[in-house]
Amino acid sequence: MRMARNNAIKLLDPQQDEFDLRILRELQDDGRLSNVELANRIGLSPAPCLRRMRALERSGVIRKYVALLDAKSVGHGVTVFVQVRVNLQLKGRFEVFEEAVLGLPEVLDCYLMSGDADYLLRVVVPSVEAYDRLLSDWLRRVEGITEIKSSFGLKQVKYSTAFPLGLSRRSDRARPSRRAEQPEAWQRPKRRR
């Protein structure tokens, strides 16, 4: 257990252990890697690689392993982002709302927010009609909700579950310049000398 605590502390330290970061990067990309394949990819022998991976699991850095499903293939092709405001005068308003949200499998993410909305939810449903039923049967009935704003995702531009680990020290992934990322029509003209 002592080793697990030390590894977790290293990951929070600016001088993180590069082998731990490599393990985490590889497992974020493919959680089904065998220990032998993982060890080969990061440059360790299998025994120390397995010890490090188990320490990362025990320390809670690695929470669990999952399969990422294609939303459309499992019948949940509509994504809705829902902003919710609650009555600030109602005692226990946050607890009531949060308890209700925890029971809804359609809500994949729920964040308590700063700004105009109190909560932001990411909801997946099979259709617009299914979302309307969710609103009618559940969301509009939760005590203390004063406002609901729904925005439908039209196209998923980027989706990732991988955290950016140690990018400031990585030489194998250079960041493109801002100018290179922009379409040519959006770029400012170059100054003439």
Short description:
With 193 residues, this protein is of the alpha+beta class. It is built from seven helices and four strands, in the order H-H-H-H-E-H-E-E-H-E-H.
Commentary on this structure:
The protein is α+β, with helices and mostly antiparallel strands and 193 residues long. It has helices at 2-12, 18-29, 35-42, 46-58, 93-102, 128-137, 178-181; strands at 78-86, 107-112, 119-125, 145-152. Among the domains are: 2-58, Arc Repressor Mutant, subunit A; 78-152, Lrp/AsnC effector binding domain/regulation of amino acid metabolism (RAM) domain (Alpha-Beta Plaits), CATH 3.30.70. It contains seven helices and four strands.
Strand order of the largest sheet: 2-3-1-4
User: Would you tell me the overall average pLDDT?
Assistant: 84
Largest sheet: 4 strands, antiparallel
How much helix, percentage-wise, in residues? 25-40%
Q: In what range is the share of β-strand residues?
A: 15-25%
Q: Can you count the beta strands?
A: 4
Gross CATH architecture of the domain at 78-152: 2-Layer Sandwich
CATH-assigned homologous superfamily of the domain at 78-152: Lrp/AsnC effector binding domain/regulation of amino acid metabolism (RAM) domain
